[in-house]
């Protein structure tokens, strides 16, 4: 595979150009399959416990539609910008990758800030992890997702920094690609969170 | 190599062992000696499934022994065996036959399954509420206004609908001779019905790990004929609608005094007392002390001296009673009877 | 490609559909689906009993959109990705159904 | 393969440092085997104490509290820390060789998986010295497992299993990728040896099952350490959720355990019958089907929970179905032997002993799958008998078969056959003596997890016999250890001691660190056998001889696991400084790994030829 051009000219789809790269991408997809079960288990638990408020605030009393809508919009957009980074990767344009990823990270930080604000606000309203089974399930599910977002942000920043030195190579390309996959996956999970946790919570526990 | 002879010798040893063991199941305890329709239905299923299983096992063993004897490499044997890829007819055969056998098993599984989950209203069945505690059992007859503990009293030949829950951790309610078990889950109510077709005493067990003395969370089931049962209910109702009777003999009176001071907070007698410990209204009529010790004055005294020694981790504290107090209590408690 | 095989610049990209347009369309699609779900809940435009199944279906549609378009799961070489995600989803759906019907006994 | 790979010679490593930093799958296999073996001895010792306590009624060898700790640790240790690692040992040692690969896909992750498992297990076992082991059963049912009812031990269970489970999960992903991407040319899926297939399906099960227990453990941790209410009925929690999450993991787990054993039996039976595996494609199909069905039946452990007739019946019937693919396997093995020339070295004794024993265990399994009857069996010694038949009589037999079979390949030494036969017979007889009577004890009304039983219940004889049997197993186990020691001085193993059929036997025992000097070209199922039959002396190479790129050893996996180990204590004792320190170590290493690319090193062509490989 490695011709004498290899260092000068990147192959197409540089993330899959080496066996290591292919292995990483495959391994990461499998990991995402595992994550599906992980989040699924949290969703199952949440669904089973979402009406058990134990005298604490209910989801209808807590949730605020504009806030959730804003968070959703931010995260969706960030997923969009990270796909743009992947397209730039396929064009082997490191500069554009960096630009798009920076936007992605900023949006991610915005999302996290909103979530932290939301949690603080809820705690003031007496909705804590120890208030009720609903509280425990809510913070665990949404918090797990938030934790993934935070990890993703750190990861992408790290990649961006090290790419400044290393440039775009068949070693760094798979990492960018994976980070972008990860970011999308977080977004997919959020789709279910806003649906199952927030929207269904606002409808209330009457149906479903 | 003498391996196979040894193997067969061993198998026959197990056969013997099996006979010995099955012969010995205790009537009051063994699931192999059903004494009611539920246990009988379950026993039938057990027999059916084991018959099928033993059949399959015999087939497997026949092929197994034949192959091992016939196809051992003989000294001086040459050449290479034919490399067979497979055989569709055979493979289909051993897919379809097990499947059919499973269907034979599935049908009674479904019917029995649903029959056992039937729920009977109070017109058809005696209703009993069971609450499991670490490590004792509380029984209430809500429609009859009677509560007892440790010894469950049932009429013979009548369906009993149980409503089961737990006050602390998960336990499981099991009377092998009358039928299978069901868990008692904290915060939820489970239902199960049973019926005893023989009078006498049956052994009950807690079948879910529930802490240090899970092994000792036994109870007894006293099955009596309807008349005796009614009489027992009347006796219990009569006593439990009133304050505890005042003891007459001097020893017992002294014991009652101690009891009212130190014990009534947890234990109820007649219509009075707490619910943290077993209801003692008919304590003197019980089969066992705390479900495990033979019911003798010595054992009652032993229990009162140091409950933790008899049952590690149970919720009755050591009250540091001296011998005189214990003696008085034992005397008082021997008067707690409705018979 | 024969004669040009060693010339990296000329080689056509293996992935043909990977244009920004496709992704922007997907993005707009996602926005629309999301908006639909929010509107359905906010304005109670459909009967309450249908809202939950409706928004759950929207969520699945959107999720597949993103998996297939943004994460390229539709492309060749993603067979194991599909198996992995769908197997995970399938197993966990079984669990979720059981949780919905049989946890509060 | 990486463009940046340096041409520096292999770094010099020695002794302990070599083992702490190795990323070589063959060495990691040995690490897994040693650690798993030690844990097996610990779990076996616990079993011995359990049986001694139950030898006579109302005896007081160990107290009530200690007994519960013993059964909990016995079950947990055996399942997670003893047999899983030994399975991973064999998978590591054999799978890359069977598919003609130079290593696994992610050597670094492989090492990390081992060290995570090791430190998770260590954390769990330190509980013995830090205020008591977990005592809520290996299933750790709530509410018994909550703070109010059990001690600190359960925290060790939660964190220890969390860390070890993480290791297992990444190990599973590693094997999936290895098998999918690293097969030698010509090694199609339908030419893979059965053990590799079994490892593949098992890894898939790990991937989808372990996240469920991860979540369960997180919830339990929140309840125990951070005031959560998932399982607290007084605050709206629900105890059934734990049971579901545990068994959604727990049932697939038992197939995670048994499938590799099936794979081993397939290899061993076929080799020692001198025949190809009968019905190979139906074996593959059955393996996959067992894996799939394994996810649909978890509630059969919860028949008495009160899920109701519909759920119980559905799960019961689904469970029974698993008998069909498993039966396919049993009959295929029998027919593999049919018409063969069977020889009985120790490896094959174990494999042949496996068949009737496992069948008995499977039979009782199907009986348990009948819900109304299970109301009688559940949580009684009948269940204990069932699962020891499939696990000890099945899985452990299979592992012994695998160890005797692949020992020469792993260590370059032959195990002693005479000791091996004694090992087999004492263990085998002891096993049946221990667990056969337990079926009847259960039916006669003996619940499981009881620290004692009262006199006068006719349970004495059975328990006594059962305890006697353990001595047989103990002697057997000790004989195995003796065998290991004796064999270390014994005769060297040749490359192909058993007249094998698969690729691992084409290379020296033990293999050089790069496994295959030249990647072999595979021309069919039983690749080596095909060449033998064609009169060839070895495999046709698929590539010219050239430099071989190897990954560098690394100390980071060890350090990362130590970090989590430390953080685990911090969580337990609510000491957040310790948590932060531990996590900093772990993330610091991750950071280092991510920033500093591993160039690896090359083994030069000449060096390979020096070691006596034909060009
Ligand atoms: C390696 C581990 C292993 C394996 C392989 C199995 C295999 C099976 N198990 Fe077992 N099981 C356990 C480990 C295992 N189990 C453990 C650890 C527990 C207890 C956990 C705890 O509570 O602590 C348990 C408990 C358990 C229960 C719950 C009991 C209870 O707690 O009440 C049930 C119920 O259905 C069950 C069923 C089965 C079935 C149907 C199979 C089947 O896969 C068996 C299939 C095999 C055969 C049937 C034999 C060969 C087939 C033929 C020769 C064909 C013809 C056969 C027929 C027509 C029947 N098992
Ligand atoms: C892989 C799984 C596995 C294995 C291999 C075993 C192996 C054995 N098991 Fe275990 N067992 C379980 C998994 C396993 N078990 C599980 C999951 C439970 C349920 C736990 C629970 O209820 O929560 C259980 C429960 C269990 C019980 C029921 C406890 C109860 O319900 O009260 C019993 C009782 O007889 C038992 C016995 C044995 C015996 C005798 C062995 C023997 O095969 C062991 C043989 C090995 C040895 C005898 C070791 C010999 C070596 C030495 C003694 C040397 C020691 C020296 C040093 C340490 C230096 N086991
Ligand atoms: Cu109560 Cu065991
Ligand atoms: Cu199971």
UniProtKB/TrEMBL annotation, chain A:
Pfam families to which the protein is assigned, alphabetical: COX3
TM segment ranges: 26-47, 67-87, 99-117, 137-161, 181-203
Membrane association type: Multi-pass membrane protein
Domain Heme-copper oxidase subunit III family profile, residue spans: 26-202
Cell compartments where the protein resides: Cell membrane
InterPro entries: Cyt_c/ubiquinol_Oxase_su3 (IPR024791), Cyt_c_oxidase-like_su3 (IPR000298), Cyt_c_oxidase_su3-like_sf (IPR035973), Cyt_c_oxidase_su3_a-hlx (IPR013833), Ubiquinol_oxase_su3_dom (IPR033946)
Listed name of the protein: Cytochrome (Ubi)quinol oxidase subunit III
UniProtKB/TrEMBL annotation, chain B:
GO MF term (any one): copper ion binding
Record Gene3D superfamilies: 1.10.287.90, Cupredoxins - blue copper proteins (2.60.40.420)
Function: Subunits I and II form the functional core of the enzyme complex. Electrons originating in cytochrome c are transferred via heme a and Cu(A) to the binuclear center formed by heme a3 and Cu(B).
Catalytic reaction(s) noted: 4 Fe(II)-[cytochrome c] + O2 + 8 H(+)(in) = 4 Fe(III)-[cytochrome c] + 2 H2O + 4 H(+)(out)
Segments traversing the membrane: 50-71, 92-116
Boundaries of every Cytochrome c domain copy: 250-337
Pfam short name (any one): Cytochrom_C
Alphabetical keyword list: Copper, Electron transport, Heme, Iron, Membrane, Metal-binding, Oxidoreductase, Respiratory chain, Translocase, Transmembrane, Transmembrane helix, Transport
Major location (coarse): membrane
NCBIfam families recorded: CoxB
Keyword Oxidoreductase part of the UniProt annotation: yes
Originating species: Brevibacillus gelatini
EC number: 7.1.1.9
Family per record: Belongs to the cytochrome c oxidase subunit 2 family.
Subcellular localization, as worded in the UniProt entry: Cell membrane; Membrane
Name of protein: Cytochrome c oxidase subunit 2
TrEMBL record, chain C:
Keywords for this protein: Cell membrane, Membrane, Transmembrane, Transmembrane helix
One GO cellular component, as annotated: plasma membrane
InterPro entries assigned to the protein according to its UniProt record, in alphabetical order: Cyt_c_oxidase_su4_prok, Cytochrome_c_oxidase_bac_sub4
Membrane spanning residue stretches: 24-46, 52-71, 83-104
Membrane association type: Multi-pass membrane protein
Cell compartments where the protein resides: Cell membrane
Membership in a protein family: Belongs to the cytochrome c oxidase bacterial subunit 4 family.
Name listed for the protein in its UniProt record: Cytochrome C oxidase subunit IV
TrEMBL record, chain D:
Signal peptide: none
Coiled-coil region(s): none
Ranges that cross the membrane: 29-50, 70-92, 104-124, 156-182, 194-222, 245-265, 277-298, 310-335, 347-370, 382-407, 419-441, 461-482, 554-571, 577-595
Reaction catalyzed: 4 Fe(II)-[cytochrome c] + O2 + 8 H(+)(in) = 4 Fe(III)-[cytochrome c] + 2 H2O + 4 H(+)(out)
Membrane topology: Multi-pass membrane protein
EC number assigned by the record: 7.1.1.9
UniProt keyword terms in alphabetical order: Cell membrane, Copper, Electron transport, Heme, Iron, Membrane, Metal-binding, Oxidoreductase, Respiratory chain, Translocase, Transmembrane, Transmembrane helix, Transport
Record pathway: Energy metabolism; oxidative phosphorylation
Top EC group: translocase
One GO process term, biological-process aspect: respiratory electron transport chain
Classification via CDD domains: Ubiquinol_Oxidase_I
Molecular functions per Gene Ontology: cytochrome-c oxidase activity; heme binding; metal ion binding; oxidoreductase activity
Database matches in Pfam families: COX1 (PF00115)
Record's GO cellular component terms: plasma membrane
Localization of this protein: Cell membrane
Domain Cytochrome oxidase subunit I profile span(s) in chain numbering: 11-523
PANTHER family cross-referenced by the UniProt entry: CYTOCHROME C OXIDASE SUBUNIT 1
Family recorded in the similarity comment: Belongs to the heme-copper respiratory oxidase family.
Function: Cytochrome c oxidase is the component of the respiratory chain that catalyzes the reduction of oxygen to water. Subunits 1-3 form the functional core of the enzyme complex. CO I is the catalytic subunit of the enzyme. Electrons originating in cytochrome c are transferred via the copper A center of subunit 2 and heme A of subunit 1 to the bimetallic center formed by heme A3 and copper B.
Name of the featured protein: Cytochrome c oxidase subunit 1
Species: Brevibacillus gelatini
């Amino acid at each position: 595979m490695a011709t004498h051009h290899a260092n000068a000219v990147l192959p197409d789809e540089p993330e899959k150009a080496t066996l290591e790269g292919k292995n990483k991408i495959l391994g990461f997809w499998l990991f995402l399959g595992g994550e599906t079960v992980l989040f699924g288990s949290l969703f199952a638990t949440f669904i089973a416990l979402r009406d058990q408020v134990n005298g604490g605030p209910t989801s209808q009393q807590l949730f605020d539609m504009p806030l959730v809508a804003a968070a959703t919009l931010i995260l969706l957009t960030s997923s969009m910008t990270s796909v743009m980074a992947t397209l730039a990767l396929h064009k082997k344009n490191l500069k554009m990758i960096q630009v798009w990823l920076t936007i992605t990270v900023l949006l991610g930080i915005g999302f996290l800030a909103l979530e932290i604000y939301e949690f603080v606000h809820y705690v003031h309203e007496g909705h804590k992890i120890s208030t009720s089974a609903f509280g425990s399930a809510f913070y665990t599910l949404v918090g797990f997702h938030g934790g993934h977002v935070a990890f993703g942000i750190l990861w992408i920043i790290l990649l961006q920094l090290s790419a400044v030195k290393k440039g775009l190579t068949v070693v760094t390309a798979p990492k960018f690609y994976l980070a972008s996959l990860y970011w999308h996956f977080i977004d997919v999970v959020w789709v279910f969170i806003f649906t199952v946790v927030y929207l269904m919570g606002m409808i209330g526990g009457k149906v479903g | 190599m003498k391996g196979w002879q040894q193997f067969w010798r061993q198998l026959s040893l197990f056969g013997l062992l099996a006979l010995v063991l099955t012969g010995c199941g205790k009537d009051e305890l063994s699931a192999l000696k059903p004494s009611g329709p539920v246990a009988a239905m379950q026993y039938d299923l057990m027999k059916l499934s084991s018959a099928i299983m033993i059949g399959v096992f015999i087939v497997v063993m026949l092929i197994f022994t034949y192959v091992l004897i016939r196809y051992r490499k003989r000294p001086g044997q040459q050449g290479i065996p034919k490399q067979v890829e497979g055989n569709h007819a055979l493979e289909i055969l051993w897919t379809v036959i097990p499947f059919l056998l499973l269907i034979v098993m599935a049908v009674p599984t479904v019917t029995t399954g649903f029959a056992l989950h039937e729920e009977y209203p109070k017109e058809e069945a005696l209703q009993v509420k069971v609450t499991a505690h670490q490590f004792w059992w509380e029984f209430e007859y809500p429609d009859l206004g009677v509560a007892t503990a440790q010894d469950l009293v049932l009429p013979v030949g009548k369906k009993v609908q149980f409503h089961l829950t737990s006050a602390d951790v998960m336990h499981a309610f099991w009377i092998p001779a009358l039928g299978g078990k069901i868990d008692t889950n904290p915060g939820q109510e489970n239902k199960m019905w049973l019926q005893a077709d023989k009078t006498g005493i049956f052994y009950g067990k807690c079948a879910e790990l529930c802490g240090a003395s899970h092994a000792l969370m036994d109870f007894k089931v006293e099955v009596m004929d309807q008349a005796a049962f009614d009489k027992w209910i009347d006796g219990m109702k009569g006593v439990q609608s009133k304050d505890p009777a005042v003891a007459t003999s001097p020893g017992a009176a002294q014991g009652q005094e101690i009891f009212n001071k130190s014990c009534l907070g947890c234990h109820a007698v007649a219509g009075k007392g707490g619910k943290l410990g077993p209801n003692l209204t008919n304590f003197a009529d019980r089969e066992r002390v705390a479900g495990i010790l033979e019911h003798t004055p010595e054992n009652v005294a032993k229990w009162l001296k140091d409950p933790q020694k008899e049952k590690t981790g149970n919720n009755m504290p050591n009250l540091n009673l001296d011998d005189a107090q214990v003696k008085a209590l034992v005397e008082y408690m021997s008067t707690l009877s409705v018979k | 490609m024969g004669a040009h095989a060693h010339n990296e610049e000329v080689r056509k990209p293996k992935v043909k559909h990977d244009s920004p347009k496709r992704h922007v369309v997907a993005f707009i699609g996602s926005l629309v689906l999301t908006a639909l779900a929010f509107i359905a809940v906010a304005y109670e435009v459909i009967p309450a009993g249908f809202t939950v199944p409706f928004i759950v279906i929207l969520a699945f549609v959107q999720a597949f959109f993103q998996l297939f378009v943004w994460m390229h799961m539709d492309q060749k070489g993603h067979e194991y990705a599909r198996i992995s995600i769908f197997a995970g989803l399938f197993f966990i759906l079984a669990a979720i159904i059981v949780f919905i019907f049989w946890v509060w006994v | 393969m990486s463009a940046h790979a340096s041409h520096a010679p292999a770094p010099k490593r020695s002794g302990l440092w070599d083992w702490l930093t190795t990323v070589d799958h063959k060495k990691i296999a040995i690490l897994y085997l040693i650690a798993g073996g030690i844990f097996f001895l610990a779990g076996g010792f616990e079993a011995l104490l359990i049986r001694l306590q139950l030898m006579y009624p109302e005896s007081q060898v160990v107290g009530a509290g200690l007994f519960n700790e013993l059964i909990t640790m016995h079950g947990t240790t055996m399942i997670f820390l003893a047999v899983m690692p030994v399975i991973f040992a064999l998978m590591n040692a054999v799978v890359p060789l069977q598919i003609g690969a130079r290593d696994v896909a992610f050597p670094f992750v492989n090492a990390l998986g081992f060290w995570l498992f090791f430190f998770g297990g260590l954390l769990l076992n330190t509980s013995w010295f830090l205020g008591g082991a977990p005592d809520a059963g290996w299933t750790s049912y709530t509410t018994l497992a909550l703070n109010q009812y059990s001690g600190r031990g359960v925290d060790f269970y939660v964190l220890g299993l969390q860390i070890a489970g993480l290791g297992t999960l990444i190990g599973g992903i590693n094997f999936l990728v290895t098998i999918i991407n690293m097969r030698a040319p010509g090694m199609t899926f339908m030419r893979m040896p059965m053990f590799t297939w079994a490892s593949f399906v098992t890894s898939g099960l790990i991937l989808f099952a372990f996240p469920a227990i991860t979540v369960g453990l997180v919830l339990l941790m929140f309840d125990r350490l951070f005031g959560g209410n998932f399982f607290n009925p007084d605050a709206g929690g629900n105890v059934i959720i734990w049971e579901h999450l545990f068994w959604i993991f727990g049932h697939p787990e038992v197939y995670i355990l048994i499938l590799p054993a099936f794979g081993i039996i397939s290899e061993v039976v076929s080799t020692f019958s001198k025949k190809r595996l009968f019905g190979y494609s139906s074996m593959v199909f059955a393996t996959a089907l067992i894996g799939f069905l394994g996810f649909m039946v978890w509630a059969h452990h919860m028949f008495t929970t009160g899920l109701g007739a519909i759920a119980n019946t559905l799960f019961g019937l689904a469970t029974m179905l698993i008998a069909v693919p498993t039966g396919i396997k049993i009959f295929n093995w029998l027919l593999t032997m049919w018409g063969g020339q069977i020889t009985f070295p120790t490896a094959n004794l174990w494999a042949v002993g496996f068949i009737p024993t496992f069948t008995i265990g499977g039979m009782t399994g199907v009986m348990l799958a009948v819900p109304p009857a299970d109301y009688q069996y559940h949580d009684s010694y009948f269940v204990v008998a069932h699962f020891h038949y499939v696990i000890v009589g099945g899985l452990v037999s299979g592992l012994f078969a695998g160890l005797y079979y692949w020992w020469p390949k792993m260590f370059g030494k032959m195990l002693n056959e005479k000791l091996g036969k004694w090992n087999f017979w004492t263990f085998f007889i002891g096993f049946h003596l221990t667990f056969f009577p337990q079926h009847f004890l259960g039916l006669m009304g003996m619940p499981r997890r009881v620290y004692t039983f009262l006199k006068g219940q006719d349970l004495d004889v059975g328990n006594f016999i059962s305890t006697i049997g353990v001595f047989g197993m103990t002697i057997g186990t000790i004989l195995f250890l003796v065998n290991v020691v004796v064999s270390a001085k014994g005769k060297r193993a040749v490359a192909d001691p058993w007249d094998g059929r698969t690729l691992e036997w084409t290379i020296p025992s033990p293999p050089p660190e790069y496994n295959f000097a030249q990647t072999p070209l595979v021309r069919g199922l039983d690749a080596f056998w095909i060449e033998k039959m064609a009169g060839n002396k070895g495999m046709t190479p698929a590539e010219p001889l050239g430099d071989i790129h190897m990954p560098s050893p690394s100390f980071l996996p060890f350090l990362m696991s130590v970090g989590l180990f430390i953080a685990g204590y911090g969580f337990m004792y609510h000491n957040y400084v310790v948590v932060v320190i531990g996590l900093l170590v772990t993330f610091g290493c991750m950071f280092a790994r991510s920033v500093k690319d591993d160039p690896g090193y090359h083994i030069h062509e000449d060096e390979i030829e020096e070691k006596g490989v034909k060009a």
